[in-house]
Amino acid sequence: MGPIPKATEEKIAQLQLFEQNLQSLSAQKQSLQSQILEMNNAVKEVEIATGVVYKIVGPIMIHAEKEKITKDLKERKDVLDLRIKSVEKQEKSVEEKAKELQTEIMAELETLEKNGRTH
To answer: HEC string of 97-109?
Structure first.
């Protein structure tokens, strides 16, 4: 096989960028999932709490109503769920583009290899 054409090399570089993007999206998704788990645990703790409930605001803790805290936590969880769905859509889009590009690259490399054998 001869030298790889510049266009093919650029496609390979683009594919590597897609892979890096997928890794970044995966890390974002894991972080969001971790935050959702924390929200779920916090909601459970608030629901079983008896007596006074406190909320951390900046560097201090203040008294808060259980219902208000539970509502706030559930709303934050809903926002995180939406962000996860957005990241998953991005992941799917990048995966499809990467798969398409990989198919193109493989076809070009196979053509190069065949042409290299016939010469």
So the answer is: HHHHHHHHHHHHH
